[in-house]
Design goal:
The complex is a heterodimer of chains A (393) and B (282).
Chain A: H1 2-11, H2 18-29, H3 37-48, H4 55-65, H5 71-79, H6 81-93, H7 96-105, H8 107-126, H9 148-169, H10 183-197, E1 203-205, H11 207-216, E2 225-227, E3 234-240, H12 246-259, E4 265-271, E5 278-280, E6 290-292, H13 293-299, E7 305-309, H14 317-320, H15 334-344, E8 348-352, H16 363-371, E9 376-378, H17 381-391
Parallel strand pairs in A: 3-4, 3-7, 7-8, 8-9
Antiparallel strand pairs in A: 1-2, 5-6
Chain B: H1 13-25, E1 29-33, H2 39-50, E2 54-58, H3 65-69, E3 70-72, H4 74-83, E4 95-97, H5 99-104, E5 111-115, H6 124-127, H7 129-134, E6 136-139, E7 144-147, E8 153-158, H8 166-170, E9 173-177, H9 182-192, H10 198-213, H11 223-235, H12 240-244, H13 263-281
Parallel strand pairs in B: 1-8, 1-9, 2-5, 5-8
Antiparallel strand pairs in B: 3-4, 6-7
Classes of the chains: A alpha/beta (393), B alpha/beta (282).
């Protein structure tokens, strides 16, 4: 059953390894979970999931694999445990007088039978509710003072019921990385950018300062260190603006305006639908103040990393043919310019706010996907993550 | 050795299981969660509950894995050699022990807290893989192997600023501290302020969760901020009514400085409160 669980997790693309599985088994062996479904769920979660973004997926798989599990111990409890437990407890706790009263009711067997029936009935009526044991107070059994230990049977049962709810609740839902970027998630996404912006915390020997201070120290060595320069990443952002992008541009801007503080070299330009011979920096003056793409190719050295942000949704002619642009007459086709960018800059990605599952329905997206040699990523946390990985290669 | 929470720390069931798993299997426990949900405090509380010494290693952006093991102070040895100090002959005089060394050689089984591991360089966790796995390392200068007599309980906290490498994660147990719901929060507050008035607490929690729900806050207030705020409310002897009065001159809750930590958030909150009040009037 657990092996099955393990493979289902892998199928759901959770990065679980044999080592983690074995450590779960080890923990089970050491009795950490102690025969409670609840604890087993928590334990397997702690052992197998290492990233809060995967918690939701894990809950789904767990719910799927162990579906029906909660029913088993529940039956076991009503069929077996209460009789033994209650009998023992009652014998221990009841006075002689009370025992006689029970005899009058029809003896132990009768009592247990009624109790069992009552428990079953109540379970059927409430179906996993957490209150039925409370109603025991009104039942005839309450009179015999089955004390808290007896009630515990019910509580254990309920905890099983609750455990199911724990993973069915799927509280980690909005941390799943296939969720579209919302304002709330942008912060987390930005951290990914920061990750590749700041690499290395090396300190290096400051030679001139060391010599100077050693000399001043009358020949006794005095070493000076300086932190290595960081943030060497240079970024060039190209935004698609207008038309179908209007719905997405606010999210894109929020995302990257905050990135500006993280990068020493960050440049951005706008284009419309597809990249042609002209770009601009100010949307209000887009027809006056333009920047030629050819000049861009010469201005920014090849170590710049290029990020296109656009929905890439247009007529295929706008990419493939000269004069295809909807706004002006372009001498050269959009794909020529994109090809030039790809030739010049080694690191280049395309971020697309359109959900990935819709990509295959739009020919222009597929065309641009090819042009950027499959480096188009959806603008989700997961997509951004892979895009950053691609860029930092 | 089992951890069940302490009288000053409310541990949820899942957290308890995760801590016990890491104690039983002697594997590191990685804790993530919103800032201020008690990640660092957890290690202290586990130490208190198990009556074990705690060794803290706070990570900065310049911290290197080697510093946790040991450091060889070549500069002072060089200086001593110039001065003709006798100590210079024994290299072990210049080996400074790191936190891991301390934890490995501790007499009692200690709790080793590696705080905010994500602050360090990307390669930092990778450099500690073997050391945390086998709980031993080699000192090249003195050619000795430092091996843990008893494996310390390692707790690692992360604020998620950097992704940790897979190989590292595979060796840890993981727990994500969720933001506590109202019920748990009431328990937590009870533990810290047992004689807080019921109705004041209710009103305060109303205000607190309202603030957390305001969209677009830069920094949502968390448990530690709530506790600070409650302490202030108690010191100032605020009445529950002053928290409830929605149409008073105050637009935002009293002593909000403890909850909202930057001026944009305060402005945003004022604006929203103002709009809400205008709607009420109409």
């Amino acid at each position: 059953m657990f092996v099955n669980f393990f493979f289902e997790l892998r199928q759901a693309k959770l990065p679980v390894s044999i080592k983690e599985y074995l450590s779960l088994m080890d923990a089970m062996d050491k009795g950490v979970a102690e025969y409670s479904v609840d604890d087993f769920y928590y334990l397997s979660r702690a052992a197998l999931v290492k990233d809060e973004r995967n918690l939701d997926k894990f809950d789904r798989v767990f719910g799927h694999v162990f579906k029906g599990l909660e029913a088993l111990p529940a039956e076991g409890i009503t069929a077996e445990i209460p009789e033994e437990w209650l009998r023992k407890l009652a014998e221990k706790l009841l006075t002689e007088e009370e025992k006689k009263q029970i005899e009058a009711m029809g003896g132990w067997e009768k009592l247990m039978e009624t109790l069992k029936k009552r428990l079953e009935e109540q379970q059927k009526r409430h179906q996993g509710g957490s209150k039925w044991i409370g109603t025991a107070g009104t039942s005839p059994f309450g009179a015999y003072g089955f004390n808290p230990e007896g009630v515990r049977i019910g509580q254990d049962k309920n905890r099983e019921g609750r455990a199911v709810k724990v993973w069915d609740k799927r509280e980690y839902k909005n941390l799943d990385d296939t969720v579209e970027i919302g304002t709330r998630n942008i912060k987390i996404a930005l951290r990914r950018l920061r990750k590749f912006a700041r690499e290395g915390a090396e300190v290096e020997l400051d030679m001139p300062d060391t010599i100077r201070s050693t000399a001043r120290n009358a020949g006794y060595l005095d070493i000076k260190m300086v932190p290595e320069r960081r943030n060497k990443v240079k970024l060039l952002l190209l935004f698609d603006i207008g038309g179908s992008m209007d719905a997405h541009i606010r999210v894109c801007e929020e995302l990257f305006s905050a990135a500006r503080t993280e990068f020493k070299h960050l440049e951005f330009f706008y284009f419309h639908n597809c990249l042609y011979e002209k770009l601009w920096k100010d949307n209000r003056r887009r027809h006056v103040d333009t920047f030629s793409t050819a000049q861009l190719l010469h201005t920014y050295p090849p170590d710049y990393k290029i990020i296109f942000v656009g929905d890439a949704s247009m007529s295929p002619y706008e990419i493939a043919y000269p004069g295809g642009s909807v706004e002006h007459w372009n001498e050269e086709a959009g794909q020529v310019w994109i090809q030039r960018m790809a030739d010049t800059y080694r690191s280049m990605v395309w971020l697309n706010p359109v959900p990935e599952r819709h990509w295959s329905y739009t020919p222009s997206i597929q065309l641009l996907q090819q042009l950027s040699s499959n480096r188009m990523f959806p603008l989700t946390l997961g997509g951004l993550d892979s895009a950053m990985k691609e860029l930092s290669k | 050795m089992k951890f069940t929470g302490t009288d000053s720390y409310v541990a949820s069931d899942d957290l308890r299981v995760a801590v016990n798993a890491s104690i039983a299997l002697q594997r590191p426990l990685l804790i993530k969660g919103e800032p201020g949900t008690g990640k660092t405090v957890l290690a202290h509380e586990v130490a208190k509950a198990l009556n074990a010494p705690i060794i803290e290693w706070h990570i900065k952006s310049t911290t290197k894995a080697q510093q946790g093991l040991y450091e060889y102070d070549a500069v002072s040895r060089l200086r001593d050699s110039q001065l003709g100090d006798e100590r210079v002959k024994d290299i072990s005089n210049y080996i400074k022990r790191g936190k891991l060394w301390e934890a490995f050689t501790s007499k009692e089984r200690p709790i080793l807290l590696i705080d905010e591991i994500d602050k360090a360089d990307i390669e930092f966790p990778n450099d500690l893989l073997l050391e945390l796995d086998r709980m031993e390392f080699y000192v090249y200068e003195t050619q000795q192997v430092i091996k843990a007599d008893q494996r310390p309980i390692v707790m690692i906290t992360s604020n998620n600023e950097k992704e940790l490498p897979d190989a590292f994660l595979r060796r840890c147990f993981f727990h994500y501290i969720r933001f506590p719901d109202r019920e748990t929060m009431t328990q937590i507050v009870d533990v810290h302020f047992p004689d807080l008035q019921r109705n004041l607490l209710r009103e305060a929690l109303n205000v607190f969760y309202d603030i957390r729900e305001v969209p677009g806050l830069k920094k949502k207030p968390s448990t530690s901020e709530l506790l600070d705020w409650l302490k202030l409310l108690m010191v100032e002897d605020m009445s529950p009514e002053s928290l409830r009065s929605k149409d008073s001159k105050q637009l935002i809750p009293p002593l909000h400085g403890a909850l909202l930590k930057n001026e944009q958030d305060v402005h945003l909150f004022e604006r929203l409160a103002f709009m809400a009040r205008r709607e009420q009037r109409q």
